[in-house]
Specification:
Strand content: 5-15%
Strand order of the largest sheet: 1-3-2-4-5
CATH superfamily: Glutaredoxin
Helix content: 40-55%
Order of helices and strands: EEHEHHHHHEEHH
Shape: globular
Structural class: alpha+beta
CATH architecture: 3-Layer(aba) Sandwich
Number of strands: 5
Distance between the termini: 60 Å
Number of domains: 1
Number of helices: 8
Length: about 190
């Protein structure tokens, strides 16, 4: 008797955005939930999403620095797990707000606060169900040359310098100018 394996579609972090999904500019960050610098950058991103409403969409990718932040990997998995119920961004902000309290039991409590209803949430964390997704982000970050967090990209171009509102805004403004210069299909015809 053959067993039929249940195939579960996992929503990948690269497919989780906040902001206008059709925005001409994509802001991507590689970050770590235990990082103080990433928590500060998260506040800047919130400002940017308001300032550039309709013009940017934001994608957070996991880059856990496990040598100094032992709980960042599981926190990333918890965010991906929450994302399966459409609660990634709620969990994302809660994790940054509680970055000093990211033990497995705390992650379960944070998931409830984010509105996650998965009864197997803790089991999924313990069994690293979403570990491959976090590892995939880490690998992509390494392939892009990321060495430290936070690391930002605007339309796949690296943002150099400190991740300040001004620096990231300049990169977004430059990307918006590039987008406006490209002729649309209607203009070419």
């Amino acid at each position: 008797m053959a067993f039929k394996k249940e195939i579960i579609e996992i929503i990948e972090p690269r497919d989780m955005f906040v902001g206008d999904i059709d925005a001409p500019v994509t802001l991507m960050e590689f970050g770590d939930y235990e990082s103080e610098a990433c928590a500060k950058a998260n506040e800047i991103v919130k400002q940017l999403l308001v300032e550039y409403e309709g013009k940017i969409r934001f994608n957070f990718r996991h880059f856990p620095l496990t040598r100094i932040h032992q709980r960042s990997l599981k926190a990333g998995e918890a965010a991906v797990a929450a994302g399966q119920e459409g609660k990634f961004w709620e969990m994302h902000n809660i994790l940054f707000a509680n970055r000093r309290n990211l033990g497995t039991t705390s992650l379960k409590l944070h998931s409830k606060e984010a509105g996650v209803n998965n009864k197997k949430f803790l089991d999924d964390l313990v069994n690293a169900i979403y570990g491959w997704q976090v590892q995939g982000d880490l690998k992509e970050g390494l392939n892009r040359g990321v060495k430290d967090v936070p690391a930002f990209f605007v339309n796949d171009d690296v943002v150099f310098g400190k991740p300040t509102f001004e620096n990231i805004s300049k990169a977004i403004d430059a990307a918006l100018k590039k987008v406006k210069k490209k002729p649309s299909v209607k203009q070419r015809a």
